[in-house]
Amino acid sequence: MQVARRLPLALTALRALLGPVLLLQAWAGPAPRLFAACLVAAFLSDVFDGIVARRLGIATAGLRRLDSLADTVFYVCATAAVARLQPGVIAHHATALLVLLALELLRYAYDLRKFGREAAYHMISSKAWGVALFAGFGSLLVLGRDGWAVDLAIGLGIVADLEGLAISWVLPAWRADVPSIVHALRLRARG
Q1: Residue 190, class by beta-carbon neighbours within 10 Å (0-12 exposed, 13-18 middle, 19+ buried)?
Q2: Closest C-alpha among 108, 80, 37 to residue 14
Q3: Rg, the chain, Cα only
Q4: I need a surface site. Which of 26, 51, 141, 179 has the fewest CB within 10 A?
Q5: Taking CA 67 as the corner, what is the angle to CA 22 and CA 49, rounded to the nearest 5 degrees?
Q6: How confident is the model at residue 191 (pLDDT cuts 50, 70, 90)?
Q7: Within 10 A of 66 (CB to CB), how many other CB atoms are there?
């Protein structure tokens, strides 16, 4: 049973470790199969770490915060890999990426100032963003194509960050697992 209780943390750690693998491989040269394997493993670990933790009754706020940190490490490394292999893609999306980065930093700073720690809402919009990131990075790193999947990933990221900021603004105290702004408004109304 002790080994099973460590599985959610191991899945989260795997995702964080796969980011640098993507980055190192980008410096070595394109490797679509390795990129695909890393993306699939990271995506599945992101889906199942929370499911396993909830089933085992060990879904803590700390584990949720580590989950968010692992996502950040993985996707920052994936973005750096794209920048290394396809710098034109980054330049093409520069304005939208700067807006997304600014919102990410604003969210982090606002949450730190208001709550003393980063948010871990695990919103529905964030889950949709995760699926879009998988598709967008798959398109770029595996297929070598820019296009609608990348646009969708950036757009959903902006929407998720705006919703996260709205939730942080609405909630009087830090909470984990707030699926949407509607849920945050209900929580606030209940006092």
Answers
A1: exposed
A2: 37
A3: 17
A4: 51
A5: 95
A6: confident
A7: 19
Q: CB 106: neighbour CB atoms within 10 A?
A: 14
Whether residue 53 contacts residue 66, with contact meaning beta carbons closer than 8 Å, is answered with: no
The answer to whether 81 touches 139, Cβ cutoff 8 Å, is: no
- For residue 66, give the amino acid letter: L
**Rounded to whole angstroms, what are the CA distances from 3 to 27, 44, 60?**
35, 19, 17
Distance CA 79, CA 20 (A): 11
Q: What is the DSSP string of 39-82?
A: HHHHHHHHHHHHHHHHHHT---HHHHHHHHHHHHHHHHHHHHHH
Q: Are the CB atoms for 14 and 121 separated by under 8 Å?
A: no
Cα dihedral 39/20/6/55 (nearest 10): -30
Residues 4-57 pLDDT 10s: 778 999 999 999 999 999 999 999 999 999 999 999 999 999 999 988 988 988
The set of residues, in sequence order, having a beta carbon less than 8 Å from that of 188 and lying 6+ positions away, is: 170, 171, 172
Query: In whole angstroms, what is the distance from residue 36 CA to residue 52 CA?
Result: 24
120 three-state secondary structure: strand
